[in-house]
Amino acid sequence: MQTLTVSLNERSYPIFIGESLLTQIACFAPYLKAKQILIVSNVTVAPLYLAQVKTTLTAQGYLVETHLLPDGEQYKDLAHVEGVFTALLEHRFNRDCALIALGGGVVGDMTGFAAACYQRGVSFLQIPTTLLAQVDSSVGGKTGVNHPLGKNMIGAFKQPVAVLADTSVLDTLNDREYAAGLAEVIKYGLIRDLPFLSWLEDNIQGLVARDKVLLAEAIARSCQNKADVVAADELEANDLRALLNLGHTFGHAIETAMGYGVWLHGEAVATGMLMAADLSWRLGWLAEADVARIKKLLLAANLPVTPPDSMTPEQFMSLMAVDKKVLAGKLRLVLMKSLGHAVVTADFPLAALEQTLAAGTQLGRSYD
């Protein structure tokens, strides 16, 4: 087992990475001070792992209740968070209770948001069960839900007390979900860790094949990158943390336009990263060979690289205008000055962005 730390002074917490952690009470106990525990999961994950986690906790004297969410990004909304509140109230949970998020990014975001709001804040622990959640959404304390007009527009910062990334659970992940997680892994190499990007290129076939040693290394290096960024800029006060959103402005527009859940988050981010690379090339920051290199890696990870042919440039612009990085009415994007060096900027000609959007489904074919 590897242990990393998100350093946030008195709110610092560990990330445990290893196999078969769900049965190891030593990982849970120090971070669950309350005896009342609500495990929030979904109807897909619960049959696989809920009994195991519940048994581990009840054997140690915890009072454990459960609440199941439907599975899918389309259910990540206020109405379904209200169900979590109802469960807490029906079981008369106090302010010293704790929530456990057992699931992927949707479960983690919704559980964390509920924990931030219930009686003005209770603790919660993350047990991410998808690769994407293990390397990204479970770490850093961003929680929230979607609105029909924009993704993740309602939320709060709420740090977990610990993250347990059990690599064994990834064995049950389908290929599409697994590939979506690789998108966020690749992101870290593109924004701040060029040696990691090279390592990914050398090992992408093994990662796609789910080699356990390579996978553990990729998760650990991704989590370390995320932990370092969060420790330096927890609340996005200086734009450092916003760099983690490479491809997300384009990607969120795709998710919103297509309907939440039609494209997986990681799939939309992958396409969004190539769109950001294309715009960076148009600004003279990346060479065409750099963009081709990004495209090759994304394709090797079985990820899409072109936006939906049904989306128009006008639709992209309309949806991107409500992105959380918009300030003073100006759209800001995460772009790449070079591979491994991302920036947040509004300093780009609108015409260049329009050219990237107009490329549409031809975008991925432009860098063969």
Outline the fold blueprint.
Blueprint: E1 2-6, E2 13-18, H1 25-28, E3 36-42, H2 46-58, E4 63-69, H3 78-90, E5 98-103, H4 105-117, E6 123-128, H5 131-137, E7 142-147, E8 150-157, E9 163-166, H6 175-191, H7 194-208, H8 212-232, H9 248-258, H10 265-282, H11 288-300, H12 313-320, E10 333-338, E11 341-345, H13 350-359
Parallel strand pairs: 2-9, 3-4, 3-5, 5-6
Antiparallel strand pairs: 1-2, 7-8, 10-11
Protein model, in words:
- The strands form four sheets. This protein has a four-stranded parallel sheet, with helices on both faces.
- The protein is built from 13 helices and eleven strands.
- The protein is an alpha/beta fold.
- It is 44% helix and 18% strand.
- The mean pLDDT is 95.
- The chain is globular and about 60 Å long.
- It folds into two domains: 2-172, Rossmann fold, CATH 3.40.50.1970; 175-367, Dehydroquinate synthase-like - alpha domain (Dehydroquinate synthase-like, alpha domain, Up-down Bundle), CATH 1.20.1090.
- Helix 6 (175-191) runs antiparallel to helix 7, helix 6 (175-191) runs parallel beside helix 10 (265-282) and helix 10 (265-282) packs antiparallel against helix 11 (288-300).
